[in-house]
Amino acid sequence: MQLTNQPKIRMGLVAVSRDCFPKELSARRMARVVEECRKIDLDIVPCSIIIESETDAMGAVAEMTAKGVNAATVYLGNFGPEGPTTIFAQRFGRPFMLIGAAEESTKGLMKDRGDAYCGMLSACLNCGLRNLMPYVPENPVVVPSGVAAAMAHFAVVARVVVGVRNLKVISFGPRPFDFFACNAPIKPLLDLGMEVMENSELDLYRLVQEAGKRKEISSIASDMAKELGKKGNQHPDKLKPLAALELALTDFYDKNRGSKDFAVFANKCWPGFEPEFKFVPCYVNGRLSARGIPAACEADLYGAVSQYMTQLASDYPVAFLDINNSVPADMKLPALGGAAREDLFMGFHCGNAASCLLCEGCAMKHQVIMHRLMEPGKTPDITVGTLEGRLKPGPVTVFRFSNTPRGEVAAYIAEGKVPDVDPASFGSIGVIACPGFGRFYRHVLLEHQFPHHAAVGFRHAGRVLWDAMKLMGITAYTPLPAGMLYPSENPFAG
Fold first, then answer.
1. Mean pLDDT of 108-122
2. What is the percent of the chain where pLDDT is above 70?
3. Residue partners of 250: CB distance under 8 A and separation at least 6
4. pLDDT of 292 over the 90 cut
5. Comparison of pLDDT for 10 and 112, the residue scoring more
6. Fewer CB under 10 Å: which end of the chain, C or N?
7. Residue 415 in contact with residue 397, Cβ under 8 Å?
8. Is 108's pLDDT higher than 80?
9. pLDDT surpasses 90 at 259
10. Is the pLDDT reported for residue 13 higher than 70?
11. Cis, peptide link before residue 271, omega less than 30° from 0
C-alpha cells in the first residue's frame, strides 16, 4: 500500500577520519559499507568528501544538501575528528546517526587500527557540547554489514522525525465540553517543528456546501459504493453528502499545507456536527487515513499526530481508537501471545477505521451512542455514516503521544496482537492483547494521566517509535516485565 502523505528518506553516508589516522582506512571501510547496502537494496548517497577538517565538513554539508539528502549516517571509519564531525551534523541540520567501524582482524591491529570505540565517546561528548541529538544504535561499533543493517533501521526512524518536522496539524471546530482529555496546547507541537491551523465548524460547513455542488462528488460516491460492496452499502443516500465532505477536506489539504509538505486533520465530529451536516463523518475519516492522511476525532490534535507517527513507523494506515472497555470473562479466546486475561481491552471507535483494517463484511451503519442521544426512538438518519466491523487479527502497536496536564509531552508504546475473536459489539472494534498491559494501564496510562484515545498500528513498530521518541527528546513509557515494579506500584501488594 503506497502512502503519499509522508516523506521519502534519502540517506547520506558520510565518512570521517582523524588527521593522525590513515584517511584510506575510512575510505576502504566506507566502500565496504556501500557494498553491504547494495546487498540489502538500501538506496544511499555516499559522500565524496571524507571529513578531516572544518572545510571538509562544510563541503560535505553542501554536497549532501545539493543531492537532496534528508538524513545522514556519520561513519567513523577510524577515530574521527570530533570537532569537524559535529560541525557537519550541526550545519546539516537533519537527523543523523553516529556509528563506528569495528576492527575486522588481528592482522590489521598494527597499521589499520581505527580506534572507533574511543572516537564514538568523543563524538557523543561533542554532540552534547553543541546541543545535538544523534541517533546511536544499540550496537554502535560494528562491521560493514552491521552498519548497513543499522542504516536500514535508522531510515525508518528518520522518516518519523522528518515527517513530524514537516507536518501541519489542521483542525475544524473546538473539542466538546466533555473532552478536556483532548486538550491541545500548541507550543509543544511548534517546538517539534510542526505548524497548527485551527478553523471553525462554520468554515467546514461552508466548504462542504460548496463541494456539494461540484460534479466530482459523483465519482467519489461511486468509489465509496464500490469499496462498501452490495452488502456494506446499507445507506446509499448518504454517499453523496459524505463525498462532499471528503472532497472539501482533500481540497483543503491540497491548498493549505503552506510551509509544510504533509498534513493531518483533527476535526470536531459531534454533537453539533450531525444536526447541521445530516450525517456522521466517521467513514470519511477512515478513507482519509487509508490514503495516509490521518483524521482524528473530537478535535484531538495530539491524537492525529500520534496516528501520523505510527503510520510513519509502520508504513501502513493506522486506526484511531479508544482504550475502551474490558473483555468479559465468558468470551472464549484463542492464544493471546503471552498476554494474560487482565492484559486485554477492547479498542473501539464509532466507525472511523479504514476498510483495509477491518475484517470482510464491514458495512456502513449508524452510530449507536449518538443515535441514543440525538434520535431516540427514531429511524437512524443524521447519525448514519459509520463503517462498522471487527479489527483484522494480527500484530498491533498501541501508541500515544500527548501533552500531560503538567504541560509536558510524553508517549507510551505497547506491542501486542488482535486475536481472532468476535468482539460481539458495535463500531470499529476488536479485542487487543498486549503482554503486561494490565499493570501498564494502571501505573502508566492512569498514573501519568494519558487520554483515552490511542493510535493503533497494524504492524509491530515499537522499536522504531522508541528510537524516534528518544531522538526527538520525548519521554516514552513501555510495559515492564513481571517482577520489575513501576515507581508507583505497591511492593507489598499481593
1. 78
2. 98
3. 288, 293
4. yes
5. 10
6. C
7. yes
8. no
9. yes
10. yes
11. yes
Smallest CA-to-CA distance from 22 within 11, 32, 10, 30 is with 30
**Across 435-455, average pLDDT:** 96
Q: pLDDT band at residue 404, thresholds of 50, 70 and 90?
A: confident
CB atoms within 10 A of CB 285: 31
